[in-house]
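Model: You mentioned two targets. I'll fold them one after the other.
Researcher: Yes, keep them separate.
Model: Target one:
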Amino acid sequence: MFRKVTLSIAAAVLVAGTVTAVPAQAATKISNGVACSKVNATTKVSGYSYRCAKNTMVKNSKLTWLSVECLAAIKSYDAALKAKKDLSSVATQTAELDKQLTTATEALTKTTAALDAAKEQINKSRATMNLTTNAAEKLALSNAVSKLANAILILTTSRSKLDSQVKDLISKKALLASAPEQINANVTDSKASANLLCAKGF
């Protein structure tokens, strides 16, 4: 009887020892946040790809497995932070745009005035040419009208380009003015995405 009890206890201890050894192997399953040792090592688990790297969003982080989705989200967050840092030059960029806009606007005003003057002069020259009977005067006026017509063509093209330039500068200035709000939103959104995709166990 004593021998049977002893054998039963020995068998139970053996089984218990065998059962407790299994979870130790399972504990090494790779996921976000699990420690690793070789930087840039890669692996796949259940169709997900991981890389051994440091999470730059965590202070004093150590090498851990991070999913490629997590790493991409961190990269987007870093880019958003850089863009926010670059906002320090917004005032300088705005001042430069204002300078260009002033120059373009002044040129547009002068070109428009010159175009209006040329149109007025060509109308006067044509009216005079129609009234005069002097052949030499007609020829001179005809030449003048031809030159004015060419000038009007050039001024019209210049005015169109300057008008487009002014509109483009105004759009750039408006976009620059809205940049801080948009970039701050990008930082917030990219950080939230990174925190979600880099959550431990994912």
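Model: Target two:
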Amino acid sequence: MTAPDSSSVPPLARAGLDRSATDRLAPDLIETARRDPATRVLVVVGDAAPLARPDALLWLAPDAVPGGAEWAFLGRDTGGGVRLTAVFAAAEEEPLDAPAGWAGLRSVGGALAADDAGAFVEALSLGRWLIDSPHCPFCGALTMLIDAGWSRRCPSCGRQHFPRTDPAVIVAITSADDPDALLLGSNALWGPERFSCFAGFVEAGESLEAAVRREVAEECGVDVAEATYRGSQAWPYPRSLMLGFLARARDDAAARADGEEIAAVRWFRRDEIGAALAGRGDVVLPGSASIAHQLISDWYAGATT
């Protein structure tokens, strides 16, 4: 496996807020920040946030946030101002109006500025844990939020719990012989026109290198000759950290769908990928917020293993 380069950064891995982790130790941080009219809050409902514009989040003053939210500290902006998130479970109706409506991270993440994109993925990742994991997994007791929303303490057994992150590899595969060919797969749960990179979770005790080779072999039958790490980004569906690779096949003819998770595999020509990235033709590629889109567009632009 070769070393990563810095030619591009995945869309949700760009610079975000200063997380200012030492501030979380202040026991009254959230309460103090909520009393400060200069504090700004990102409301998240399910996986959606309000928009000030199609390419910008709507940040609210604390007193504009409806009641019933779980609160957490996101960090500080470039001016040192406190940024919080107020998280609600998914609802049929949004709790407040937004000038440009509400949107999920998948649909709008790629269009946001770096600070907003980073804040959204942070708030959604943390918020899902706040909503979904109120009880101690060891004894079942209701836990108490501490560290400004970044950990929980169980009053019954004394254990401390933190948000969980599950590493997963995601791989675009180049041809053994043809620099203008890229292998993608169509998941059995998608329509036949939708193609993306190959992905899977890293198993217990497994290295990233081994996970890349295993997942690619399982899903499309290809033996990986070499792989280049291209970057990572959080993907809170529900709590993944996607680690992106560009890999080269040893034998193009070995490519075949596993028939279970992957319904079809296909070698695409560079001009086909360019057309699909531009929204032309019948092939649908991943959305611009995803690292899969970044891997594919980087390859199209000339990145190689």
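Researcher: Noted. Anything on target two?
Model: The chain is about 20% helix and 30% strand.
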